[in-house]
Design brief:
10 helices, mainly alpha
Length: 230
Protein backbone atom coordinates (compact mmCIF):
# COMPACT_ATOMS: atom_id res chain seq x y z
CA UNK A 1 0.00 0.00 0.00
CA UNK A 2 1.54 3.29 -1.12
CA UNK A 3 -0.13 5.53 1.46
CA UNK A 4 0.04 4.90 5.18
CA UNK A 5 -3.37 4.32 6.75
CA UNK A 6 -4.48 6.67 9.50
CA UNK A 7 -7.55 6.68 11.76
CA UNK A 8 -8.72 9.97 10.20
CA UNK A 9 -8.99 8.55 6.67
CA UNK A 10 -12.43 7.70 5.40
CA UNK A 11 -13.03 3.98 5.23
CA UNK A 12 -14.37 4.32 1.67
CA UNK A 13 -11.08 5.94 0.60
CA UNK A 14 -9.13 3.11 2.19
CA UNK A 15 -11.20 0.55 0.28
CA UNK A 16 -10.71 2.47 -2.96
CA UNK A 17 -6.96 2.23 -2.38
CA UNK A 18 -7.14 -1.52 -1.81
CA UNK A 19 -10.47 -3.29 -2.19
CA UNK A 20 -9.02 -6.55 -0.83
CA UNK A 21 -9.35 -4.92 2.61
CA UNK A 22 -13.08 -5.56 2.30
CA UNK A 23 -12.18 -8.97 3.72
CA UNK A 24 -10.62 -7.41 6.81
CA UNK A 25 -13.63 -5.11 7.20
CA UNK A 26 -15.98 -8.08 7.01
CA UNK A 27 -14.01 -10.26 9.42
CA UNK A 28 -13.87 -7.68 12.20
CA UNK A 29 -17.55 -6.85 11.85
CA UNK A 30 -17.45 -3.33 10.40
CA UNK A 31 -20.67 -2.64 8.47
CA UNK A 32 -20.46 -1.10 5.01
CA UNK A 33 -23.12 1.47 5.89
CA UNK A 34 -20.33 3.15 7.88
CA UNK A 35 -17.90 3.26 4.93
CA UNK A 36 -18.42 7.01 4.55
CA UNK A 37 -17.13 7.65 8.06
CA UNK A 38 -13.58 8.18 9.24
CA UNK A 39 -11.91 4.89 10.04
CA UNK A 40 -11.82 5.71 13.75
CA UNK A 41 -15.59 6.30 13.78
CA UNK A 42 -16.40 3.20 11.71
CA UNK A 43 -14.25 1.14 14.10
CA UNK A 44 -16.02 2.70 17.09
CA UNK A 45 -19.39 1.47 15.81
CA UNK A 46 -17.95 -2.06 15.51
CA UNK A 47 -16.04 -1.93 18.81
CA UNK A 48 -12.68 -2.31 17.07
CA UNK A 49 -9.40 -0.62 17.98
CA UNK A 50 -8.41 1.47 14.90
CA UNK A 51 -4.67 0.90 15.40
CA UNK A 52 -5.21 -2.86 15.45
CA UNK A 53 -7.37 -2.66 12.33
CA UNK A 54 -4.56 -0.74 10.60
CA UNK A 55 -1.98 -3.28 11.77
CA UNK A 56 -3.96 -6.22 10.38
CA UNK A 57 -4.70 -4.28 7.18
CA UNK A 58 -1.00 -3.57 6.64
CA UNK A 59 -0.18 -7.27 6.98
CA UNK A 60 -3.07 -8.19 4.69
CA UNK A 61 -2.04 -5.63 2.08
CA UNK A 62 1.69 -6.19 1.90
CA UNK A 63 3.63 -9.48 2.12
CA UNK A 64 6.74 -7.41 2.95
CA UNK A 65 5.20 -5.66 5.93
CA UNK A 66 6.81 -6.49 9.28
CA UNK A 67 5.07 -5.23 12.44
CA UNK A 68 7.27 -3.41 14.91
CA UNK A 69 7.53 -4.68 18.50
CA UNK A 70 5.68 -1.58 19.70
CA UNK A 71 2.81 -2.22 17.24
CA UNK A 72 2.48 -5.76 18.52
CA UNK A 73 2.76 -4.69 22.16
CA UNK A 74 -0.05 -2.14 21.83
CA UNK A 75 -2.34 -4.23 19.60
CA UNK A 76 -5.75 -5.20 20.97
CA UNK A 77 -5.49 -8.98 21.37
CA UNK A 78 -9.24 -9.44 21.55
CA UNK A 79 -9.57 -7.76 18.13
CA UNK A 80 -6.83 -9.96 16.69
CA UNK A 81 -8.73 -13.04 17.83
CA UNK A 82 -11.92 -11.54 16.40
CA UNK A 83 -10.23 -11.16 13.02
CA UNK A 84 -8.84 -14.70 13.09
CA UNK A 85 -12.22 -16.13 14.10
CA UNK A 86 -13.84 -14.21 11.25
CA UNK A 87 -11.24 -15.65 8.88
CA UNK A 88 -12.07 -19.19 10.00
CA UNK A 89 -15.76 -18.53 9.40
CA UNK A 90 -14.97 -17.25 5.90
CA UNK A 91 -12.75 -20.20 5.01
CA UNK A 92 -15.16 -22.89 6.19
CA UNK A 93 -18.41 -21.15 5.33
CA UNK A 94 -17.56 -19.58 1.97
CA UNK A 95 -14.09 -20.12 0.44
CA UNK A 96 -13.88 -23.90 0.75
CA UNK A 97 -17.48 -24.39 -0.36
CA UNK A 98 -16.89 -22.28 -3.46
CA UNK A 99 -13.68 -24.14 -4.24
CA UNK A 100 -15.41 -27.49 -3.75
CA UNK A 101 -18.20 -26.47 -6.12
CA UNK A 102 -15.68 -25.43 -8.77
CA UNK A 103 -13.84 -28.75 -8.38
CA UNK A 104 -17.08 -30.68 -8.81
CA UNK A 105 -17.75 -28.86 -12.08
CA UNK A 106 -14.13 -29.12 -13.17
CA UNK A 107 -13.90 -32.91 -12.94
CA UNK A 108 -17.41 -33.62 -14.25
CA UNK A 109 -16.08 -34.81 -17.66
CA UNK A 110 -13.49 -37.14 -16.07
CA UNK A 111 -14.00 -40.87 -15.70
CA UNK A 112 -15.10 -42.16 -12.31
CA UNK A 113 -11.64 -43.22 -11.13
CA UNK A 114 -10.15 -39.83 -11.97
CA UNK A 115 -13.01 -38.07 -10.19
CA UNK A 116 -12.56 -40.23 -7.11
CA UNK A 117 -8.81 -39.53 -6.82
CA UNK A 118 -9.06 -35.78 -7.43
CA UNK A 119 -12.04 -35.19 -5.19
CA UNK A 120 -10.57 -37.33 -2.39
CA UNK A 121 -7.49 -35.10 -2.37
CA UNK A 122 -9.70 -32.05 -1.95
CA UNK A 123 -11.93 -33.64 0.70
CA UNK A 124 -8.91 -34.78 2.72
CA UNK A 125 -7.37 -31.30 2.58
CA UNK A 126 -10.65 -29.70 3.58
CA UNK A 127 -10.89 -32.04 6.59
CA UNK A 128 -7.28 -31.19 7.55
CA UNK A 129 -8.02 -27.47 7.41
CA UNK A 130 -11.20 -27.82 9.46
CA UNK A 131 -9.34 -29.83 12.10
CA UNK A 132 -6.62 -27.16 12.23
CA UNK A 133 -9.19 -24.41 12.71
CA UNK A 134 -11.13 -26.42 15.30
CA UNK A 135 -8.04 -26.72 17.53
CA UNK A 136 -7.63 -22.95 17.46
CA UNK A 137 -11.33 -22.30 18.07
CA UNK A 138 -11.69 -24.86 20.86
CA UNK A 139 -8.38 -24.45 22.69
CA UNK A 140 -6.20 -21.53 21.60
CA UNK A 141 -8.75 -18.73 21.36
CA UNK A 142 -10.54 -19.59 24.66
CA UNK A 143 -7.12 -19.71 26.34
CA UNK A 144 -6.29 -16.23 25.02
CA UNK A 145 -9.68 -14.84 26.03
CA UNK A 146 -9.23 -16.28 29.53
CA UNK A 147 -5.89 -14.48 29.83
CA UNK A 148 -7.58 -11.26 28.75
CA UNK A 149 -10.11 -11.76 31.55
CA UNK A 150 -7.27 -11.98 34.03
CA UNK A 151 -7.41 -15.71 34.66
CA UNK A 152 -4.16 -17.45 35.50
CA UNK A 153 -2.94 -19.64 32.71
CA UNK A 154 -2.89 -23.40 33.32
CA UNK A 155 0.51 -24.82 34.14
CA UNK A 156 0.21 -27.42 31.37
CA UNK A 157 -0.40 -25.00 28.48
CA UNK A 158 1.08 -21.81 27.02
CA UNK A 159 1.07 -20.04 23.68
CA UNK A 160 4.47 -21.66 23.04
CA UNK A 161 2.65 -25.00 22.79
CA UNK A 162 0.56 -23.54 19.98
CA UNK A 163 3.63 -21.99 18.37
CA UNK A 164 5.57 -25.26 18.50
CA UNK A 165 2.83 -27.28 16.80
CA UNK A 166 1.49 -24.62 14.47
CA UNK A 167 1.64 -25.85 10.88
CA UNK A 168 1.43 -23.99 7.61
CA UNK A 169 -1.96 -24.90 6.20
CA UNK A 170 -1.25 -23.62 2.69
CA UNK A 171 1.45 -26.11 1.66
CA UNK A 172 -0.95 -28.64 0.08
CA UNK A 173 -2.42 -25.82 -1.98
CA UNK A 174 0.71 -26.19 -4.14
CA UNK A 175 -0.19 -29.82 -4.86
CA UNK A 176 -3.78 -28.83 -5.59
CA UNK A 177 -2.57 -26.12 -7.97
CA UNK A 178 -0.33 -28.58 -9.83
CA UNK A 179 -3.16 -31.10 -10.21
CA UNK A 180 -5.33 -28.48 -11.89
CA UNK A 181 -2.57 -26.87 -13.92
CA UNK A 182 -0.63 -29.91 -15.11
CA UNK A 183 -2.36 -33.24 -14.62
CA UNK A 184 -6.04 -32.98 -15.48
CA UNK A 185 -7.16 -34.68 -18.70
CA UNK A 186 -7.90 -32.61 -21.78
CA UNK A 187 -11.64 -33.17 -21.45
CA UNK A 188 -11.66 -30.74 -18.52
CA UNK A 189 -12.72 -27.21 -19.41
CA UNK A 190 -9.94 -24.64 -19.75
CA UNK A 191 -12.28 -21.99 -18.39
CA UNK A 192 -13.01 -24.09 -15.30
CA UNK A 193 -9.30 -24.76 -14.83
CA UNK A 194 -8.65 -21.01 -14.87
CA UNK A 195 -11.50 -20.34 -12.44
CA UNK A 196 -10.32 -23.07 -10.07
CA UNK A 197 -6.73 -21.86 -10.21
CA UNK A 198 -7.78 -18.31 -9.36
CA UNK A 199 -9.70 -19.64 -6.36
CA UNK A 200 -6.71 -21.73 -5.25
CA UNK A 201 -4.25 -18.84 -5.55
CA UNK A 202 -6.55 -16.48 -3.64
CA UNK A 203 -7.14 -18.95 -0.84
CA UNK A 204 -3.43 -19.82 -0.65
CA UNK A 205 -2.44 -16.17 -0.30
CA UNK A 206 -5.19 -15.56 2.24
CA UNK A 207 -4.09 -18.54 4.34
CA UNK A 208 -0.50 -17.29 4.27
CA UNK A 209 -1.60 -13.93 5.65
CA UNK A 210 -3.69 -15.71 8.25
CA UNK A 211 -0.73 -17.77 9.40
CA UNK A 212 1.48 -14.66 9.46
CA UNK A 213 -0.98 -12.83 11.74
CA UNK A 214 -1.05 -15.81 14.08
CA UNK A 215 2.72 -16.33 14.19
CA UNK A 216 3.91 -12.72 14.15
CA UNK A 217 1.16 -10.81 15.94
CA UNK A 218 -0.98 -13.15 18.04
CA UNK A 219 1.84 -15.27 19.47
CA UNK A 220 4.14 -12.41 20.62
CA UNK A 221 1.14 -10.42 21.90
CA UNK A 222 -0.04 -13.38 23.99
CA UNK A 223 3.49 -13.95 25.27
CA UNK A 224 3.33 -10.39 26.58
CA UNK A 225 0.06 -11.23 28.33
CA UNK A 226 1.55 -14.33 29.86
CA UNK A 227 4.59 -12.40 31.12
CA UNK A 228 3.03 -9.18 32.29
CA UNK A 229 -0.70 -9.71 32.71
CA UNK A 230 -3.34 -7.63 30.96
Amino acid sequence: MKENLTPDMRLSDILDMNYSLLQVVSRVGIELKHAGLKLCDACAFAGIDPATFILISNVFSSPEYVPTPSEVATANVHDIVRYLHGSHAYYTGIALKRLEASFDRLVEPCDENQKKVILKFFVDYKAELEKHFAIEEDKVFPYVEALLEGERRPSDYSIEDFEEHHENVDEKMEDMKNIVMKYLPDVCSEDMKMWSLLSIYRLRDDLRRHTYVEDNILVPAVKNLESHGR
